[in-house]
Amino acid sequence: MKGLNPRKWAAVAVLAAGFAAQASGQTVSQRLIVVSLEDRRLALVENGQVRKIYRVAVGKPSTPSPMGTFTIERRVANPVYEHDGKTVQPGPANPVGTRWMGLNIRGYGIHGTNTPKSIGKAASHGCIRMAKVDLEELYDLVAVGDTVELIGQRNEETAQLFGGVEKPAETPAMTAQSAAPAQQPVAPADANPLPAATSAPAAKILVSSR
To answer: How confident is the model at residue 168 (pLDDT cuts 50, 70, 90)?
Structure first.
């Protein structure tokens, strides 16, 4: 996709989603989430226009974020965190924060954190972390089926999206989409997506790391 500007890039993604939607009868998605792992930035592109840009945390070198094209498979408001027999109810201590947007690559998603100082760093177990306010805003702007691009090295497209973002001092290691992660950051216990309403019952998120 070298030389393809963000508007054309988004149009290609929407067109591909359209073909899939025609086959399944679903509504065509017109949103694209682009994450530059090198820049540690996330952009929401809607109808070919950049709507929002956020700072994020990405995978650390020992547990890198995957690269490739994915979709949002599940959205959970106020998840319950479970790991090694430990359960954390929704609240400030929850390691995945107040929202979970799971991708169609098992164990990975976009979520919050109980360590906000990690935002902007290569600090996660492979997932994309966001600050609470940014996370909850993005959650309300996206839907199941939206396309998510995780890009490792800065290229022409990410340079256009994120402009002259100063490169972080740390450079995270990355893996190809086909590579198996060293640890599975998040494995949802229930594959059924929940509505966006925050009043819905808390859903359990079984995790091996985050």
So the answer is: low
**Residues with a known catalytic role:** 111, 127
Q: CB-based contacts of 137: which residues, under 8 Å, 6+ apart?
A: 52
Going by their DSSP bridges, the two strands 128-130 and 187-188 should be labelled as: unpaired
Task: Indicate the pLDDT class of residue 25, thresholds 50, 70 and 90.
Answer: low
pTM (whole model) above 0.85: no
Residues forming beta bridges with residue 124, ordered by sequence position: 59
Q: Look at the alpha carbons of 17, 19, 20, 25 in this order and tell me if their dihedral is positive or negative.
A: positive
Give the DSSP H/E element, type plus range, for residue 32. strand 31-36
Q: How far apart are CA 12 and CA 8, in angstroms?
A: 6
Q: How many CB atoms lie within 10 A of CB 100?
A: 27
Measured CA to CA, the distance from residue 35 to residue 158 in angstroms comes to 8
Domains of the chain with bracketed CATH? 6-206 (2.40.440.10)
